[in-house]
C-alpha cells in the first residue's frame, strides 16, 4: 500500500490526537489504523507539531542565547538541546540555528559588498 507524502489535513491531525490519547505513542499500531501514514510520519507529526506541550510562540531572547551555548556543548544534537528548553522541539531548535546561520552569512555578504563599494577605485579617482 502506498503511503501519503502530502501535508497533513486538520482531520488527520484530529485523528492522530485521538489515537495518541487512546493508544499512547504506539506508532506502529496507530499507523495501521490511519493506513495512509507510516509510523515514522505519525511519530514526527506528533513530536514536532501536535504535542500539547509545544510552545509555538517565537523564541525568546534567553532561549536563543541558551541554544547558542548548548550548540557549542552538544554540536548539532538538536533533540538534546531542545530537551534543555521546555516546550521547544528539536526541529524548532534546528530551524532556528540554520536560519540564524543563513542570516549571518547574508549580513556578512552585504557588509563585504558595501566595503567593496567604499574602496572602489572609481570613488578614489573622483576625490
TrEMBL record:
InterPro entries: Homeodomain-like_sf, Myb_dom, MYB_TF, SANT/Myb. PROSITE patterns: HTH_MYB (PS51294), MYB_LIKE (PS50090). Residues 1-54, 56-105 form the HTH myb-type domain. GO terms for molecular function: DNA-binding transcription factor activity, RNA polymerase II-specific; RNA polymerase II cis-regulatory region sequence-specific DNA binding. The keyword DNA-binding applies. One of its GO terms (cellular component) is nucleus. The keyword DNA-binding applies. Transmembrane segments: none annotated. SMART domains: SANT. It holds the Pfam family Myb_DNA-bind_6. Keywords: DNA-binding, Repeat. Residues 1-50, 51-101 form the Myb-like domain. This is 7147_t:CDS:1. It comes from Paraglomus occultum.
Amino acid at each position: 500500500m502506498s503511503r501519503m507524502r502530502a501535508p497533513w489535513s486538520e482531520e488527520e491531525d484530529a485523528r492522530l490526537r485521538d489515537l495518541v490519547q487512546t493508544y499512547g505513542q504506539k506508532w506502529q499500531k496507530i499507523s495501521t489504523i490511519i493506513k495512509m501514514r507510516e509510523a515514522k510520519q505519525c511519530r514526527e507529526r506528533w513530536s514536532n507539531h501536535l504535542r500539547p506541550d509545544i510552545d509555538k510562540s517565537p523564541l525568546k531572547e534567553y532561549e536563543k542565547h541558551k541554544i547558542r551555548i548548548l550548540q557549542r556543548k552538544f554540536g548539532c544534537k538538536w533533540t538534546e538541546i531542545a530537551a534543555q528548553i521546555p516546550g521547544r522541539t528539536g526541529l524548532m531548535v534546528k530551524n532556528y540555528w540554520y536560519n540564524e546561520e543563513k542570516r549571518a552569512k547574508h549580513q556578512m555578504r552585504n557588509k563585504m559588498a558595501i566595503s567593496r563599494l567604499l574602496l572602489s577605485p572609481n570613488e578614489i579617482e573622483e576625490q
